[in-house]
Design brief:
4-stranded mixed beta sheet
């Protein structure tokens, strides 16, 4: 078995992909390859000990998703390439290298934020960053490099991730981090009142948001994340305008307001996620 570092171009990736034996390799998940391709286009793919591997018959046994991503992205990358990976006999049975590949425990983004990037609440930060990513791009899968970019744009995430309040779930905290970027004064007004619920007039947008969040069901799904994010932006917008409301609507007035106000930051996060302003990747997720 020998390992070398090669520059894998899109053309070479296409050539290597032809060495997959479809009867002895799991089916390629194209959506995962597209996600990897966005990472590559955004410059978030770095050479590590992990690469691609071929067995003694020349079959590609590891790395087809990475290779497909290179082909899709049009980006050339340095990658470790291992050849002549041989099977072995154990107690009379043939064990193939592919039997042992991708069987490990995957680190979550939250774990990495806690372990490597000093986040006091990595899991909560992961959820908040994912909510903001969905708002900016429509993408649902967050990665460490994108999460770090989002936290750098919206530093209020660090404080919001530490709060353990029923009404401050990840979607709401993500929207509030966005609002705090341009309206830091809502920390001592809107957010404190949302948490406490004290002394709120009947038609206060804060009270209506609080009631809606407490009554809402299914708070873990992507559909809820989009709705709660929008409710929060609409509520803060009404609060800033001094408006009374009978209920928090699903309309786009507040959402559009913050989209326009923070279009520079949205563009920055889209670039970090590898989403081109000229394409519609988010609509296909």
């Amino acid at each position: 078995m020998k390992t070398v570092t090669e520059l894998i171009t899109p053309d070479l990736a296409e050539k290597y992909l032809k060495k997959v034996n479809p009867k002895k390799q799991r089916k390629l998940v194209i959506s995962r390859a597209e996600a990897y391709a966005r990472e590559m286009q955004a410059g978030h793919w770095y050479p590590t000990h992990q690469g691609i591997a071929f067995d003694t018959q020349g079959n590609l046994i590891d790395g087809q998703t990475r290779l497909k991503a290179i082909e899709l992205s049009g980006v050339s990358l340095q990658m470790r390439v291992t050849r002549e990976v041989a099977p072995k006999i154990v107690n009379g049975a043939v064990h193939h290298a592919i039997d042992y590949i991708d069987n490990g425990y995957n680190r979550t983004v939250g774990e990495q934020l806690s372990i490597r990037h000093n986040s006091a609440s990595g899991r909560q930060s992961q959820g908040i960053c994912r909510a903001i990513l969905m708002w900016c791009t429509g993408l649902k899968k967050i990665t460490v490099p994108v999460a770090l970019e989002i936290i750098s744009v919206y530093p209020a995430i660090k404080n919001l991730s530490l709060k353990r309040e029923k009404v401050l779930n990840c979607a709401v905290s993500g929207a509030l981090a966005v609002c705090l970027k341009s309206n830091p004064e809502i920390e001592d007004t809107f957010i404190k009142s949302l948490i406490s619920g004290a002394d709120l007039r009947q038609n206060s947008p804060i009270l209506k948001l609080r009631e809606l969040l407490i009554a809402a069901k299914g708070t873990g799904g992507s559909c809820y994340t989009v709705k709660a994010f929008g409710w929060t932006l609409n509520s803060v917008h009404s609060f800033l305008a001094g408006s009374s409301v009978s209920k928090i609507k699903n309309g786009s007035l507040g959402v559009d307001y913050f989209n326009q106000q923070q279009k520079h930051f949205i563009k920055k996060i889209r670039a970090a996620a590898g989403v081109s302003e000229l394409t519609k990747e988010a609509n296909h997720e």
